[in-house]
Amino acid sequence: MPWLIKGGGLQQDPWQICNDDCVDYPPGLILISREHWSKQLSLINRPKTGLILRGDDTQHIDELMIHAVDLIALEFVGFKDGRPYSLARILRHQYAYTGELSAIGDVHVDQLPLMARCGMDSYHLRDDQDSHLALKILSGDTLR
Amino acid sequence: MYQYQDHDKALVCARVAEFRDQTRRFISGELDEESYRPLRLLNGLYIQRHAPMLRVGIPYGTLSSRQLSQLARVAEKYDRGYGHFTTRQNIQFNWLKLEEVPDVLEMLAQVDLNSIQTSGNCIRNITTDHLAGVASDEIEDPRPYCEIIRQWASLHPEFSYLPRKFKFAVTASAHDRAASQVHDIGLHLIHNDHGEVGFEVLVGGGLGRTPIIGQLLRDFLPQKDLLNYLDAILRVYNLHGRRDNMYKARIKILVKSMGIDAFRQQVETMWQQMSRADLCLTDKRIAAMKQCFSPLPPLVDDVEFVDLADGDDGFSLWWRQNTLPHKERGYRAVFLSLKQQGMVPGDMTAAQMLAVAELADLYTGGEIRTTHRQNLLFPHVPATEISALWRRLNALGLASVNITSINDMICCPGLDYCGLANAESISVGLGIQERFSRIEKLHELGPIDLNISGCMNACAHHHVGHIGILGVDKKGEQYYQIQLGGNSAGTETTLGDVLGPSLPQKDVPDVIENLVQVYLDQRLSGERFIEAYRRLGLQPFKDAIYAVAD
Questions:
Q1: How does residue A141 score in pLDDT terms, banded at 50, 70 and 90?
Q2: What is the mean pLDDT of residues B412-425?
Q3: Would you say B463 and B486 are in contact if contact means Cβ atoms under 8 Å apart?
Q4: CB pairs below 8 Å between A and B: how many?
Q5: Distance (Å, whole) CA A142 – CA B320
Q6: Contact at 8 Å (CB) between B509 and B483?
Q7: Is A105 an interface residue toward B (CB < 8 Å)?
Q8: B311 phi and psi, to 5 degrees?
Q9: What is the rounded distance in angstroms from the CA atom of residue B26 to the CA atom of residue B41?
Q10: Which of A33, B145, B162, B211 has CB atoms 3.0–4.6 Å from B463's, for a disulfide?
Q11: Residues B494-510, buried b or exposed e (16+ Cβ, 10 A)?
């Protein structure tokens, strides 16, 4: 199981990403895309469901969706694509979303402070990234 | 000028430490080039033709003597003893060693300078009128607002990975001296019908491959809403600007494709939905910021130099060409020309910087400005001290009588330094300068903005030069396209018309001389070059150059 950075520490990542063609959901915490969510309305009442939002989902998010899920994961399709930062701000401010806001995808350690300042609070690093360095960067240890 | 507070200092020092760590990881191989690139760019560091180039920010072109002295020390210790001032009021060092850049940044931080966001796809240095606080036609000094915007934009977590770079220019006069109509956002400080101060907001201007003049987004934005409104514009751009093609990623392309009305609608909606109380500018905050840029006391000892400067002696010529009146009684503003004959336009040696810093303390309260046209300015010189200052500047090679003339050219580094350039700019500029070396000739020609870019990225704003020169690569040869009639100063911004097919480098000085001759032959009494061009159109100029070849 991969690692998740949350609350200043490392923990095993309990979330499983389900592809859009998935019909047989595993038990536990699942992450699905916005398109998947829109097609599978039965998921609305399923506990432990998280929603993946990408930069181009901005026009399609709504209040119901935001407040029905247990987690929102903002996907960085490329680390230079800064749309998830704005999405985070919109979710926190316009939609008053107070749940967990996670960064997934092309997540680099050097961008974690920006993500944190935009309201993200857990991070799934890209495979080649150093999670211990990530913790140091988030705690400001590399600045001393 | 604004003095860094503890939080500003802490922020810059943390950034230096962060970049030191990132650079260490890059050099040791822990961080790959693709990941390091945007990090170094956010710190103003490019990898150029010969060496890394560091661009140091000079917010809104205001520099203290202490800062200029430190720039001189950086140039001496880490570069080859000089620096290059840019059109966006910054300074570049061209010969640094990558591993020494964190030390340079640390040295800069000691005097509250940094290179944060001087490159990369983020909000760049906020530029303004070099005559801010000096010009009698300004509504008020625009710099307090520039500083407020700088603080908002610095390390903005949401806008550090925009689709492309983002440039602001702020002015407070009807006469534009900051090229505000060719910026991503142009802010004009204005009064509304009730006498309240606010901003006219332009959006989507820019040069480069697709030159576009900014469009009116809002005719009056109250001061208190400035940051929330900018936040809304940037958020709409961040979410909707193109990311699939870097040449179509600037906000000007988004505005053009959406249409200004649809873009405005999105911004206004975003503004309504996302405005935050902490971004609302209170009167108290604005007043406190204005305190940092408080006006000078009028000098009682006012000396009128009109008679004295009426002659043909060196001082009088310089006084008329290189100095300007000041809105406060008893002062004048003095340009320091960085276009000395035979020297690279915009370059300054460390020795000159140190000497100028000393002169700034003596003659202008320690405050120096950098200008869009790549010169320096002493903003507040007591009129009684001007002749003494002139002698000192003359000795330093900084009193060339050429401000606003064709020899006061904007010139990018071109192929000599820049990894993007197609052709040399500096040699072309110097070749032209040689043709107009006589002061009498320059005087006869009057004001002509000559802008020379070494490639279509247009760092030297060739589209808005009265005469613009663009370097192109033609089968490995350096050729130059000439444009006429561009303008970014005053009230009417226009893009130049292409004269015709590009020309080989050796012909450029002759061509410019011939173009200028058309103007001299056909101008009406008192008509400036740009005015004559607007009346005559392209044809007579075109005929003078291409008729011979045909």
A1: confident
A2: 86
A3: yes
A4: 67
A5: 55
A6: no
A7: no
A8: -85, -170
A9: 14
A10: B211
A11: bbbbebeebbebeebbe
